[in-house]
Every structure is written in C-alpha cells, then in structure tokens.
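dude i think i finally got it to work??
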Amino acid sequence: MEILKNTHLQTGRPWPLGATWDGHGVNFAVFSAHAQAMELSLFDAGGAVEVARLNLSAHTSDIWHGYLPGAAPGLVYGLRAQGLWQPAQGHRFNPHKLLLDPYAQDVVGRFVWCDEQFGFQRNQPDVMDTRDNAALALKARVVHDDFDWEGDTHPRVPRDQTVLYELHVKGFTKAHPALPLALRGTYAGLTHPATLAHLRSLGVTSLSLLPVHYALDEERLVRQGLSNYWGYNTLAFFAVNPALASGLNGGNARDEFRTMVKTLHREGFEVLLDVVFNHTAESDEAGPHLSFRGLDNASYYRLRADNHALYENYSGCGNTLDIRQTRVLQLVMDSLRYWVSSMHVDGFRFDLAPVLGRGDHGFERGGAFFTAIAQDPILSRVKMIAEPWDTGPGGYQVGGFPRDWKEWNDRFRDDMRSFWLRSAVQPCTRGAFALRLCGSSDLYQHHQRRQRPPAESVNYIVSHDGFTLRDLVSYNQHHNYANGEDNRDGHANNLSDNCGAEGPSTDPALNALRARLQRALLATTLLAQGTPMLCAGDEMGHSQSGNNNPYCQDNATTWIDWVQADLDLIAFTQRVLSVRHHLLPFRNQWYSGQADAHGAPDLAWLQRDATPLVSAHWNQPNELVLGCCIGHPGRAVAPVLLLINAGTTDADFTLPTGRWQAVLDSAQAQGRSHWHGVGAAAFGLRAHSIAVLVPEDAVLDASLAAPDTLLYTTLP
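look at this
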C-alpha cells in the first residue's frame, strides 16, 4: 500500500462503472451528474485505516474516472463526493462522509448505527455534519473472480411446466436436523443432500429466493434487538449477502452462491432472485449518508416537486429510486445482467415492480425499463415476475405489465381464500372461483388490447408476506406483538370464518377441518391454470404462531421446523404436483367452451347433477359445488374432470357418461383414492374438498396408478 500512496491516478476510462482490474491495475468509474469533485479513498486490507486519497479528476459524460497502476484485487476503497450542501435543492454532498461504490461486488465492514453515519446533524437536519465516518463506513473491495462453472447451463423450464417455490435461504435450512451446524441457514445448506431430496420429492421446478443482495437492518429494528430478516432493504445491488454464507474453508460468499446455483442447476432447478430496485437502505430525508445520497441525491432518487428536501415515497420505505434517470436505469440493468451472466441466475421477482415503470405521469407499460429488458439479448431470455403494485398513486397494476412478464395475482389469492374459507366480508361465488381457476381472463386475456397467456398469472394463496397456510386456517386475527409495533403492523384480520378458536386446538373435529381446508387450498393453487407458487413450509404445516408480518423475526418463528413436519400434508402436496405434471389439467391457452370437430367442448362447467352451469347459476351465493370438465387438457389424457365442493356438507356429484377413476381426492389425508365408477353413478364429494378424475382406461404414470405408495421418505 505504500507504493500506491505515492502513485498518481492516470486518466483511465469512463467504463465499465465500478472498479475493474485488467491484470496491471484497477480502473475506477463512478457516476455523479452534480458533484463538483470526486475522491478515491484507499484503505488497508481490513478497511480500518485510510492510507491515501486520490482525485478522480477525469470527467466524461457525468462519469468520474481514473486508473491506478499496480492496484490489484483485494484493494479496499471508498468514495468522497464534493458539491453543494443544499438539501432544499436536492443536493446533499458532504466530503466528510465516505461512500460505498454502487457497483461494489464485495462489501467490507459491519455497519454500526451512530450519528457519524448521517450527513447532517441529527438535531439540526439542515446543518452538515463534519465528522469523518471513514473508520465506521462500509467500503468496497476490488474483486476479480475466476469461478469454474463446469459447463453449467440454465435449465430453462418451459413456462407451462413451471412451479415456483418461494423460500428464504436461512429459514429453509436453519432448523434442519440432518444438516451440519455450519451449513444450516446458508447457501451451501440449500444444496445439502437432505434439502435437495425434499425439493426433488415435491416436484417444484424453480426456487424463488427472498433477497440475497447486501442489505441493512433499519436503525429502529437494531435498537429493538431485531433485524430485517427478509432483506428488503438493499444497499449494494451487485453484492451477495455474506450473512447467508457458511464461510467454510475460507471461501467467499460469491463462490458459495455460485456453487449453490451450479448444484441446483445440475438437479434441474431454476434459481430466481427477489430483487428490490424500488428503494434503497438510505431511507427518507432523516436517513443515513451511505452511498447514493452522497454521490448524487438529486439523480438517484425521486424528489418531491414541491420540496426537493423531501422524497417521493412510492415504496413505503422512505425513498424511491428514479428509474427515469439514464444512469439509474443503467445501474439496474447492469445489476440484472451481472446476476444472470456472472452468477447464472434464471430470473427475477421484482418487489413493488410498478416503480420500475413510473414515468413523469404514472405507470407506463411501454416505459424505458420494460423496453430495455425486451431488447436485451441476455435479460429477455430469463423469467421476469412482477409484484404488480406499489404504494404510489395508480400503483395497482395487476394485468398491466408487458407480455412475457409473469405477475403475482392477488385477485387469485383473495378470491380463492374467500371461496374456501367463506368470508362474509369478501364473499366469493362460483363465477369468481371459475374465473380465477381458469387463468383470470379478465386480467390477462384481452387486457389493453394485448392478449397474454394464462401462465403469466402467478397463482398463490400464501407468500412470505402474510399468514402461513397453517395459520391462515388457524387464526382470525394477527399476533404480531413480537415485531415491536403493538400489533399494528401487518393485515389486521384474516378472511376466514372457519378458523374457530385462535391457534392450536385439541378439538379433533376442528383440526380435521383445518387440515382439509389446507389441502383444498393447496390443490386449487397447484392445479389452476397459470403458474403456481408454493411458499416453503406450507407443505409441512409450518406455523408462525399467527404472526403475519415476521419480516424482523430471525428466529424459530420463521425457521421451518422440520422435526414437526406434517408428513401427510407433504405426501399430499407431492401427489397434487404429480397430478399437475403428468396430466397438466389446463393448457397454456385460453379456453372458449366451443365444441371441437367431434362435438366435445374444450371446457365445460357442470352442476352436481351433471347438467351444464348456465348464467343464472354462477352467482348463487350459497351454492358452492361445481365441476369443470376439461376436454383439451395439457397432456394426452382427455378429458380431465375437476370436482369442487366448498360447502359444509357432502355432495353426491353425478358424473358425465363413461367410466372414471379418481387420481386425487383432497378429502383424504394424502390425497389418494381407490375410487372407480361408471357415468351416471355419483361420486361422493366430501365437504371442503376437490377431486380430480380421469377416464378409467387412461394410461397413468406409476406415481398416480399406485395410490398406496408412500412418496415422501426423505425426512430424518
């Protein structure tokens, strides 16, 4: 480092942004449209001692750049930006504050909340704080990776075969008794043979990981002894969260993540990342000075038109990234390409995604971000999933995203919950149920004059955000006191009128009802037309004791309890997914109800006496039995018959002409059925259940044809 202390920066290049080693030295490039000067601060290997400051004097198209001969990977550095301190005008430059490079791939240090981390005096927000924070600030380390991918390729699961499985890297394995302690809760733990066996046995295809970008815990949570467990508070969009790495054998988090991806690909699983480009960890005008705010506050963030000292808060987290700015859009695109090209992920789920499409006058489905994605030769080939709402005006955009984007469909979630759990607050009829079961055509078939395929609806009953499936049928109210907000956070109540007593019960009848409702909800989600999403742990009966907003609970509340797993429910989930994969009841196309050349309709709706459902029947409030006969299913078996009874009493369902066999009956603990019958006979459709029947002469996969075979054998 003594050599570097006396080395002058050469001009270097304005690209690529960040720190890039070329074998002889390191090029530095950082964007700031409003800075008046930019300094590069160099540190010792541990990041504790500042050993040099060098001016990035070259300035090209708002990029400050310089080249440091002799510098190599491992060099620790930070940035200091000089400019106006005029918060009312949107400028918050403070050269006393060391700033993290937005393109950092490796972050050095452990963030500590203290007054020195803020650019202003906390008792006088308009006054600059002149204390230097270098000893405490997070820094970047120059990296140059040479990872052996061993010919790794993307699985590229077809859209109509995709089954999403949403999980938290730590929560999924932290309490797994078969894993060595050092691997629990880590990237490496996710590919342990025991966890892989569970994933293989389920039949899911694509793992959707909660955020793994480098994120911070909010000051309020830290002072309460809590943390931002979910990780939706990103600071570094190119850096892997090191807290989720085992660090075994001195390995770095990036390589452990890559090894995880490579192993999952080898097993046939896709890896998708939940990414947060709607806001950053710097929060609102009362937040710290960490990176973007100090480098160019007026460019990175959307500021209020009436007061540039304040932020537009379309994220609900204090600030909103301004994707309208070219270099901010470039940051997002560069990050996405990095995770696909260098980390080999297979797609993304975008948190509060309408922010990415917000122009000057609201959400624009043809905006710059979506156009950039569509034309990109790398990103246009991976899966893109939107959480299609944010907290700003016009922020609810379900059905409004471009073609080829999948969307979380909360209309499916709410209507299906209401149908099965019988909400008096939000009642759901057979008509609404059928609409959601068959791809939500009101949202996707002809929306804005552009037809989108049914698979673009991500169907879910439960996600990380809300009650678990077990809690959904066990609690009428949320129980979030552990979050430190006096139970005011999260949704105030459930949609269920069937839960009975709050929490665990010793009543066998109530527990049987809850179990049956879980199975019905799972079957509906996994068989419906569209792309199903299962939240990790719901197939095991995971409970969070009624906490429906456990974002700050890094403990047994959120860690999946494998020891207490419901083996019957796991076996049932396996069977439903086996039915989906082998029969694919619905094609990825819209059904018309019209007859084919043989006179058979592609899809028909039936009453319990096998007569057609007509318009007068759809909205009868207390009639909850119906059948769906799919004449053109996705696989060779035809037809497939779905029978649904959300009522409280059993129903005899008269079958269409022919000989039938049941391959799924959710009234049974593991979903298996021996039932065979002739048309015009009645199938005993139990209350709160769904059944799948196929012609008796259908050729079935062994897993469906041998109903007494226990599929699930992987728990320790």
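The radius of gyration is 27 Å.
im so relieved honestly
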